[in-house]
Design goal:
Length: 390
């Protein structure tokens, strides 16, 4: 019996260690088997289908609510739309967008590999009762503006207006799929004039149905500017100004900060860092800058140490590369974890010699328009329609 107890304990420890090890393994990006039949839904299964634009119009600034709330029109309501995004290349994370011709909206589903269950172009129905309608990215003041209305779960912490739906039973109860035999990827809405863009300061999807949808922005010219937020230590408080470094025009004499790629993997970020391109960037945010014991403002260059910058964490980072349509800036936002994060923007685009057409989801963040692409194939030259990336 004593031997059996010892063996059982050893197996328990082994399983525990294996679980700890597997927690840090690569994310699965293959395809799952689907051994059990699934019930496909259609319009006839629902009595109250509301448009995405009408749903978003129910939201008012800083007033998220659990549906239906006081909105009689949302009683037993459902929205439907076709999936316009795919997380397979890695530029969307634990969420997907659907659109119905009136507007588009993000569904915050706390799972990776959503493309296995919700195919791009597949119809999805969302039972709204019990879910939270909120906004991400709103900012007050002259330098702020609207964000994006989104659907999720009520955030118990109160830090965000919506949280992820993470329990499988909860997801399956609210996010219902249409027949995958009826796949039709939404046709991108073409915007080729600055006057066709939404007003990022005042409009969200309830006011402008172009937001949240798959669009093609034509004739974009590089604006010679980037934005990226670095952290000295991601394990520490990310709101602490002494832990933040902004790569931006306000923190570097070169508004591009030397970043010529769409985003930065950990390897590419380290390469940029070691080149010294960010040495003048100050640690801090706004008018609050970190200082050393002598009262000097700390810069990335002062953290160089032995030449390897031990005081700066090496990690993957998302980057906003700025382009212009007329006088309006559009931020093309790309994840540092996606498959094409380190793709170089061609020199003829960086120099302004050639314009590009880009297809992606048109969003709004703190009063600034952003475009998030599905894949590298979404970039083409305006003049020849040839892809930037093969």
């Amino acid at each position: 019996m004593k031997k059996i107890a010892i063996i059982s304990a050893a197996l328990a420890v082994l399983c525990s260690c294996q679980a700890l090890k597997e927690e840090f393994q690569p994310v699965f990006t293959g395809s799952y088997d689907n051994p059990e039949p699934y019930t496909w839904y259609s319009d006839s299964d629902f009595s109250n289908i509301v448009s995405i634009k009408d749903l978003c119009a129910c939201y008012s600034k800083k007033n998220p609510f659990v549906m239906p709330g006081s909105h009689v029109s949302l009683a037993n309501a459902v929205i439907k739309g076709r999936v316009s995004t795919t997380d397979r290349p890695g530029n969307f994370y634990k969420s997907l967008y659907i659109e119905d011709g009136t507007a588009g909206i993000e569904l915050k589903i706390g799972k990776n590999g959503l493309y296995n269950d919700y195919q791009q172009g597949q119809t999805v129905y969302v039972k709204l009762g019990g879910l939270s309608l909120g906004m991400y990215g709103y900012k007050d003041g002259n330098y702020g503006g609207q964000g994006m209305v989104q659907i999720g779960y009520e955030d118990p912490s109160g830090d965000y207006e919506t949280a992820y739906l993470e329990l499988s039973k909860l997801i399956d109860a609210h996010i219902l799929r249409g027949n995958p035999a009826d796949i039709r990827i939404p046709e991108p809405l073409v915007i080729d004039k600055e006057s066709g863009l939404p007003n990022s300061k005042t409009e969200h999807q309830g006011k402008n149905g172009k937001l949240g949808r798959l669009v093609t922005l034509k004739g974009l010219k590089y604006a010679n500017e980037v934005f990226c937020l670095l952290y000295l230590n991601s394990q520490k408080d990310k709101e602490d100004f002494a832990n933040r470094v902004f790569l931006s025009s306000s923190n570097n004499s070169d508004p591009t900060c030397g970043v010529t790629t769409l985003a930065m993997s950990e390897t590419k970020m380290t390469e940029y860092l070691l080149s010294g391109a960010w040495d003048q960037c100050k640690v801090g945010s706004g008018s609050n800058y970190a200082k050393d014991d002598q009262g000097n403002i700390i810069t990335i260059g002062s953290l160089k140490g032995n030449g390897r910058y031990p005081g700066v964490e090496k990690a993957a980072y998302s980057v906003s590369q700025y382009f212009k349509m007329g006088s309006t800036e559009i931020q093309i936002r790309t994840s540092g974890y996606c498959r094409f994060s380190d793709y170089e923007i061609p020199e003829d685009v960086l120099s302004g010699k050639r314009a590009i057409d880009v297809t992606g989801i048109l969003t709004n963040y703190q009063g600034s328009l952003q475009l998030v692409v599905n894949s590298a194939a979404d970039f083409v030259y305006s003049d020849t329609k040839e892809p930037l990336y093969n």
